[in-house]
Write a structure and sequence with these properties.
Shape: globular
Number of strands: 5
Strand content: 5-15%
Structural class: alpha/beta
Largest sheet: 5 strands, mixed
């Protein structure tokens, strides 16, 4: 086992990039070759495959010991997760848990040190920002340690730092500070050589997130501890310590120049990918405080590796977890690219970067199960198609089962299959399709058309950040090459700040703080759209010069029918001035413009009775079985009353005869 473990660490080190390996370690030459390639997804998948094979061989050997396996597997997983290599780390984690599940379900659970893998699982989800899953594993590790009196050592202290980090993200700052102080005190009592690098990482992550909530004095013990541990630092520890130091410089000292220098060094180091994942937003915010040119340069450096990193993460988690991961990634990227909009710049590089990033993050939300399924059917191997069919069968099965334990069992099996499916395929081409459509989109626009991306960005004022809404209007400028006489189009972007906006302001916009102002309240009651129109007025004034505007909203603006807002005198609305076409994101424009036929079919739903759903799905109405499988009977309840009869009779409409409205007339 010692030899096997040694080889495992050598192979994992290929991912981490923290040591050089000679290509004479047969039979793992293939893994060494993969390390030299750029296909990181295949690389991580191959690494995980090699390690899982070694684990399986050890399980079948006479030397197998669950106690040795727990500790070894945990170290291997933690080494991968240090570099945020979620594909290899996740696959090895789930494979290890499967191997030990029989032991953990036995009556002798207390004899095993399950905290090893529970802490590794916490690290897996906490590093990715899937906090709900991280909370489950952190709680499990805490309860196990308390019940078995294992409340000391690296794993216990590391779990406390992880708990504090989770509490910070939940806004429980006082509780987080208390737990953090206790964990730092415990580390002070340990010999420096006994402190694990993984524990140092957990402390640095928590300290970095805690900085803006505490005083400089509070971090004094942390700084002393880091000085004592300096000889025990790994390359990853040093990266995280530099990021921590840079944030101290900006948040506590306002020294943006020095912090910017640290970030530039990190983005040009051998661990640039890790640095990008850990500190992109802070780096761009720091550069913005120096100058617009510095911000543009930093954005170029970060963006150079950014998309590759995001594509890698997209393949790292099961479909259920990915949605949370994508949301966190999208928030981080939107904040990073939105920082440069504070200067109300006309810098086309900054505007195009924010525009394309907004489209890219919106495309992440379109990666639902059906799109991934279609992608696998079109380009996947027979093996992946088989796994996909198994997942679909499980989804159908779970929709018909009401027993909680049985549903949980199927859900767990489905989760394992989905994780393997995601780690086994490369979804980059799927996202690239949307990105490429957006890049070429302006050439599809006529000169009297525009495409509008509405986004949220952090507006910085007096050192504080307030989320503003903004709109980037993209048009195609007609140009002519004088030398060759060639007509062409060039992208042009214009930014419009819409200010802070929330549901409260949408309803009471213009009322000020005096909600008892009857005159304004009566004005609102007469025309509810006036208040919304005021908030969007800068955008509406800009786009009314165009014949058609393709608008992609975000946030609460999704709730507004922009085309129906009143505009001008009398009963005029925005659509009277400019045709508003609502889209998901700019990549939709190319498809809309390419259509040369009108829709010839429609699905009709009428008079739904949600208390009588037993037979739903028997008639598929043209939907594939995959969709029908998700229809679940809604249990009868007092609040699920039958809807009143709708104005249109579905059967008569299908036959070409529209039913009469019970009252009034159809609107024109």
């Amino acid at each position: 086992m010692k030899k096997a473990v040694s080889i495992v660490f050598i192979v994992i080190s290929l991912i981490a990039g923290v040591m050089e390996i000679k290509a004479d370690d047969n039979p793992y030459d293939r893994a060494l070759e993969l390390a030299k390639e750029n296909d990181f997804i295949s690389h991580q998948r191959e690494i995980a495959s090699v390690i899982c094979k070694i684990f399986d061989e050890f399980v079948e050997s006479d030397e197998f010991s669950p106690f040795v396996f727990e500790e070894t597997a945990s170290k291997v997983i933690d080494t991968a997760l240090e570099m945020r290599d979620f594909i290899s780390g996740g696959l090895i984690l789930h494979h290890s848990l499967n191997i030990l599940m029989d032991y953990y379900n036995s009556q002798e659970l207390a004899t095993y040190n399950v905290q090893y893998l529970t802490v590794s699982a916490s690290e897996y989800y906490l590093s990715a920002g899937i906090d709900s899953q991280a909370a489950t594993w952190i709680t499990a590790a805490t309860e196990f340690c308390i019940n078995t009196n294992r409340m000391s050592g690296n794993h216990w202290i590391r779990n406390r730092f992880n708990m504090a980090t989770l509490l910070i993200r939940m806004g429980e700052i006082d509780k987080a500070k208390e737990i953090y102080e206790g964990a730092v005190s415990d580390l002070h009592s340990m010999e420096s050589k006994e402190v694990s690098p993984f524990t140092i990482n957990a402390m640095l992550r928590c300290a970095t997130e805690l900085i803006e909530h505490v005083s400089s004095r509070f971090m004094r013990d942390t700084n002393m501890l880091l000085a004592n541990l300096s000889d025990n630092m790994t390359d990853v520890n040093n990266v995280m310590m530099q990021i921590y130091g840079a944030k101290v410089l900006t948040k506590k000292q306002g020294n943006y120049e020095r912090a910017n220098w640290i970030y530039e060094q990190l983005f040009n180091s051998k661990l640039a990918v890790l640095a990008y994942k850990l500190c992109l937003t802070d780096a761009l915010t720091t550069a913005y405080h120096i100058s617009e040119d510095r911000y543009s340069t930093m954005m170029y450096l970060a963006g150079h590796i950014g998309l590759d990193v995001i594509f890698l993460d997209l393949n790292s988690f099961s479909l259920n977890d990915s949605e949370i991961l994508w949301q966190r990634v999208a928030d981080r990227l939107n904040k990073s690219h939105g920082i440069g909009l504070n200067a109300y710049t006309d810098n086309q590089f900054i505007l195009s970067g924010a525009y394309l990033n907004s489209v890219f993050t919106k495309s992440l939300s379109t990666l639902n199960f059906n799109r991934v399924s279609d992608f696998i059917r079109e380009s996947g191997t027979e093996e992946f198609k088989s796994v996909l069919n198994s997942i679909i069968d499980m989804r159908h099965k779970i929709a018909k089962i009401t027993d909680k334990d049985e549903r949980r069992k199927i859900a767990n099996n489905m989760e394992k299959l989905e994780l393997g499916l995601r780690a086994g395929i490369n979804l980059s081409p799927l996202i690239s399709q949307y990105h490429n459509k957006t890049v070429v989109m302006p050439s599809y626009l006529d000169t009297d058309e525009c495409a509008v991306e509405i986004l949220q960005y952090p507006h910085i004022e007096d050192g504080k950040e307030v989320m503003h809404y903004g709109a980037i209007v993209c048009t195609a400028l007609p140009l002519k090459d004088k030398k060759w006489g060639i007509d062409y189009k060039a992208n042009n972007y214009e930014f419009i700040d819409l200010g802070p906006m929330d549901l409260y302001s949408l309803v009471y916009y213009g009322l000020g703080t005096d909600l008892g102002d009857r005159h304004r309240a009566l004005q609102y009651s007469r025309d509810e759209y006036v208040t919304v129109g005021n908030s969007l007025r800068p955008l509406l004034k800009n786009i009314q010069k165009y014949k058609r505007a393709y608008v992609s909203p975000t946030g609460i603006i999704n709730m507004i029918n922009i085309g129906a807002l009143p505009w001008g005198d009398g009963d005029s609305i925005v659509n009277d001035k400019v045709e508003i076409i609502r889209i998901n994101a700019a990549f939709d424009v190319t498809d809309i413009k390419a259509r040369d036929t009108k829709l010839k079919s429609a699905a009709v739903f009428s008079n739904m009775d949600f208390n009588n759903m037993e037979n739903v799905g028997n008639d598929t109405c043209g939907f594939d079985n995959e969709t029908v499988g998700y229809r679940v009977k809604i249990e009868k309840a007092a609040f699920m009353t039958k809807f009143p009869r709708l104005p249109i009779d579905g059967k008569r409409l299908v036959k070409g005869r529209v039913g009469r409205r019970p009252c009034g007339r159809f609107p024109p």
